[in-house]
Amino acid sequence: MNLSEPLPSDFAEPLARAGGRLDLFSRRVIWYPEVSSTSDIAGSLAERGAAEGLVVAANMQSAGRGRLGRTWASPPGAGLYVSVLLRPPRLVLPMVTIAAGVAVAQGVEAATGLRAQLKWPNDVCVGPRKLAGVLAEANTSTPDCASGPYVILGFGINVLTAAYPPDVALRATSLEGELGRHVDRGLVFVECLSALAQRYSDLTHGGTADVIAAWRGRAATTLRRRVRFETAGTHLEGVAEDVDETGALLVRTASATIRVTSGEVSWL
Length: 268
Prior knowledge:
SH3 type barrels; 2 domains; 7 helices
């Protein structure tokens, strides 16, 4: 059984200084030295009625996960491994991942000065290498859960240069690897939560267009590129043109423009 511990001082101090900037994410922050997955813990607490804004963070994960069932390498002390509980209106559910990607990129830049790019739907990159990932897991049909529908939004950020598995090391980067200096994990943590609070507020108060505009501004290097994707069991290629108002990727093929809402997309 995993037992939580007090938030380490290098996280607690910037959290206290942030004050109202964290909005709903200042209410309850739980820290674990080690867990299987922060999202699993956040989901379990959501089922038991935890309030929106719950934050679960850990020093390492033994079974962190990414999109399409992939694992997320989570070496001890090498990154930020965080999940938050949201209870958004159904209308904005499809945009949560897009908003979170923007927030993580903005938080990283605010804390370190490093400008990261975005690649649909959930990659935060520096050049061709992945710096961070976002995974939104929605539970919208919970007949046995009195607390109602919810979303667990997890994000992982590579902070230190670490001994990642060979297949990960080829396509991953880290904040310290890019900057060549020490990075304050607690400050990155707080700035990402602050940016996420703002972008989530945008979504829930009619500011979806602002979120999309911010996403486009960081996706300039990945849009207008050829991609390969699958739809209805058929593999197609086209040019990634844009995202629409629901966060779907618009791909122009030889015969039509197709909305891609899920599945694997490979940039060519």
